[in-house]
Structures are given as C-alpha cells and as structure tokens.
Fold this sequence. Notes:
By secondary structure, the chain is an alpha/beta fold. The protein contains eight helices and 17 strands. A six-stranded antiparallel beta barrel has the order 12-15-14-13-16-17. Strands 3-2-1-4-7 form a five-stranded parallel beta sheet, sandwiched between helices. Strands 9-8-11-10 form a four-stranded mixed beta sheet, with no helix packed on it. The longest helix is centred in the first third of the chain and has 17 residues, at 78-94.
Amino acid sequence: MILEELANKRIAVLLSGGVDSSVVLYELMRQGLTPDCFYIKIGPEEEEEWDCSSEEDLEMATAVSHKYGCKLEVIDCHQEYWNQVTKYTMDKVRAGLTPNPDVMCNRLIKFGAFHEKRGHDYDLIATGHYATTEIEHVVSGSPADALKWLCTSPDPVKDQTDFLAQIYDWQLQKALFPIGHMMKEEVRAIAEREHLAPAHRRDSQGICFLGKINYNDYLRRYLGELQGDVVELETGKLIGHHKGHWFHTIGQRKGMGLGGGPWFVIKKDIEQNIIYVSHGYDPQTAYKQDFPIMAFHSINGQLPPTDVTLKIRHTPEYLPAKLEAMGDGNYMVHAAAPIHGVAPGQFCVIYDAEHHRCYGSGEITILPSGC
Length: 371
C-alpha cells in the first residue's frame, strides 16, 4: 500500500514488545503517519502459577511508543483468549488432534477480539507479521472488483502466512504488514540503528501470548494425566507407557522416554489411550502422501487450483501437491512426495504453485489408515 493511500487512514499499531512490531511503528512514523498504539494484554490465567514475560513486553512496548510520542493503550483480551483459543486447543487435543493455537489466535484475538474492542475505530490494523499483500483488479478496476491477497514474505524462514491462513476476508482487508517485505536481518538492523528498546530481544518461541509457558504444562493444567500403553505398531508389543495421548502428536520423535530408539509416533487410539510407535530412523510408516482436508477456509473467496504448494507446519519449505475437490469444501491432497508427520487437526495451508499467494487452509482430517 503506497503512502498516498495511507495518508488519510486511521491506523492502529499492535505493539507486542518485540523487535518486529517496534520497527513497524518506526516505519509508519518515518513516512509521516500518526498511528495509535495498542498492547493486547493476555496474562497467565493465574499470575502466581505461571512464569510469564508479559510485564517486560509491556515495558518494551511502552518505551517504543513513548520514543515516538505515541500514547499506548492497553487492551485487555485476557478472557477472550482463555475462553476461545484455550477452548479450541483443549477440545482438539482431547479429541486426539494436533491443533495450532497461533493460527486461531490471529483470527480470534489479534484481528478478532481486538477489533471488537477498539479496532473497529480504525481503517487499518498494523502488525509485525512477516507477510505481504497485493491487490488484484478483477474486472473493471473499481474498488468493488478488487481482490486483496495474502502473500508470502521474501524471508522464507520468518514467513508467517501459515499463521494467518484462517483469517477472514474482512480481517485481511484491514491488515497492514509494514515489515512484511523485509528480511529479519534488515528489521534487526533498523532496530539497532534507531536504538529501539527491544532491538536485542530474542524472538518469542512459545505459544502466542503465553511466552515461556511450556506447552505440556499448558495441556497438563487442563487435561491432567492419564497413563496409557505405548505399543510397537508392527509387532503389537508393549514397550512402555505414556501419561496421556494429548502429550504426543503424529510424527513425534523426541520426548517419548523410551529406550532403544529412535521411536516415532505413528498413530493414536484415542478411546483406548494407546500410542502406536515405529522403530528406526525415519520409518516409512511416519510418512503420508495422500490425505484429506476438510472445511477449506478461503481467505478471500477464491478457491485453489489443482496444482498447488502447501505447508502442514511452520517450516521454510513449500511442498508441491495436487488437490482433488471432494465437495462441500473438502479436498484430497496428493503430495508430490511423502510428507513426514501428517497429523489430523493440523492446518494444511494452500499456496499457488509459485508459493506466492496464500489461498487459505483446511484442517487435516482422519486419515484412511486410521489415526
């Protein structure tokens, strides 16, 4: 979006306290724009029980906003996060699926709950996501005929379109990604040059908004533990025990606590609470080449073509595949090569063949061989 188009827009910047959103504010101010700054507050459910860096995040966000003379408003989305994102996560995990809280956090919180509370007062919501957008004028070139596309970042390692692939069209229409065209190294260099407070902060590696909280601790808090058997898939031999199927996902290799490995999680019997594993280095049973996805969510209403690329997890690689339409928004994915660790519940994110435009995503459903 060029400067002239932004000049008369009301822009809200979501500051997280990290380097990326800080450079977003710098970039907008550098262009002579006057955005308003917001910090989304989502603390631990009970402060005394969780180790959380939210206080430091707020301090950093405050320092950056003050540097540019902007007032920072704190928006409490605490209840919405725990009621919506946590519920989604626990419902999926309890059912034996592999959810992605970060994907739903973008749809339900950053571009959802925030919009309901304050974002509706603004034309654009700027975030530090590594993603880009482009406008396609379909027929006459009038605004009514324009399609806005979610597109990938030139930085394949940091690209975050997979985390945005469940947002709605109206959310994309308001989304602004000022650093999405940059490499991470460029962003850090700007932060250092401009002496931004978070310049040397490490990137967050945890669940969206939960900071240092361990994912298994997060699950244990809500689902507890339930001992079950670990069985070798090929022989049916009992080789160990686990503390709950929800702590394990298809394709998992580490954290099994089994001797004589490596062992890979191949499938789960949810009713019996049994984990099936296969022994060896990258066994063929850990791969799937054909699998279904259901309820495909198109970001802007455009359905994907037959020849696509895809991701099933946050990696730099885009995997070529063909899509077979099954009706009712369901597809069968025929990957060009077997894919490791395909798990029901994961989002399969679909891109064009050049992995430039993101069409949206669908949830991987139960595989024909059982899961």
